[in-house]
Structures are given as C-alpha cells and as structure tokens.
Fold this sequence. Notes:
alpha+beta; 6-stranded antiparallel sheet; 5-stranded antiparallel sheet; 11 strands
Amino acid sequence: MPGVQDTVNIDQFLRTGVDGGGNMGVSSQAGKSRPETGVILRDGADVFRDKGTGDVLAEILIGTKLEPVAIVASFRSPWPLATGSVFDVECRDAKTGDGTFMAVTDNVGGKSLEELPSDFFMERLFNPAGRFSFYGAPTDIKVKKSRTEGLTRYMEVSFSNLSQSTNSEIPRKAIVAATIPKGSNNAVMLVASSSTSRWLKGSEKDVRSTIESFQAIPAPKTSLKLRAKDRNPLGTL
Length: 237
C-alpha cells in the first residue's frame, strides 16, 4: 500500500477537502519512525485497554481522505497496551515478545473475504515497512490454513523474523483475523503471534482467544467531523 501522505497532511485533507481521494495510508516518512500498519487513529479517540478484563477498544478511520469511514474495533488481550510513537493499536509482552496488533489493507476492489487471495493480506503484514519487518524482512512466510466463518476470515501463518537482542532469526506462529466492515472497502485485521517455542508451551491458547474476540464494526453516526489524529511529535506544521 503506497503511503504518500503523512498523518499531518491527512488531517489537513479531512479538514479542507483539497485532494482527489486515495487510500489513507501511513507515509514513508512516518514509516521510518514506526511500522506501517495502515491504521489511522481517529482524532479525539484514544486506544483504551481495561486492565481488569483485558478488553481493548480503538476507533480508527479507513477509506479515502475525502470519504473516511469511522470504525470501532475491539478485542480482548492478555498482554498490556503498547504505548509510544512506534505503536498504533498494539498489545505486547516486552519480555516474551508475544503480542497482537491491528492492521488495515488496501481497497479490496469489491471482492469478498473469500475471493481475496491470502497474499493480499500478507502483503500488508509482511511488507518491508510493516510491523514484522521492524528489525528486518521476515522469511519462510507460509499460510498454513485459511477459513472464513461468518464475517471473519482466519489465517494461520508461520514465518521467521530477526530478533533485536540476538540478531538471529526466530521462528514464529501467528493467527490473523480479517473482516470488511459494512459500508467499507478495506479489510481490518488483527494479528496475534508468539515464537514457535512459546507456542508449543501454551501461548497458542492466548493467541487464539485474542483472535476469537476480535470485531470491527462501523462507528455510530455523529455530527462530529471525521479527522485523523495528528501523530507528528512536532505538532501541526
């Protein structure tokens, strides 16, 4: 997904309408400081996790700059919310590396979840500027299983990525849930993963329960204008 606008410019386009449209992607400039997930947070809405239940709630914008669609996404995570400039909607255990994050695909082109090839989703998750490529490009990417249940498609994936601490490749397993919210043309995804060694020791249960709790639906209509959150640490230019 080519990201040609930064978050500040997206906010400007939503306020002024000075653009012919195009996908609301994270820019290549922003990608240098944080991975590109395709997630655009809605202005005025913070990502929230209930420490007691683990329930996570986030409001994001998908669609185009001229026709944004507000989506409310939720899931239950056993891992704490990841905060900081490099994270969009993510929960992770910094010690074990287990975690989950949201991502948004390109325009689906009118296709249903079942009609889209698995590679369509993998391109977002494993692109060179993606979350799993933060320390280097993943290798041995394989979609082991793919099925659709109701409004959600599930894909089980194996891959290896570079460890920051050991500078060696670590095999990982992940499950991806993808859904196309009503009235939208993008798939919203949640991916949860752990190292293969931890997966075999029981982390698979946490990954599956997190994925099974995921849903993304259109936000209730309000009179408030849809604007992207300014993610520029220097403020609006």
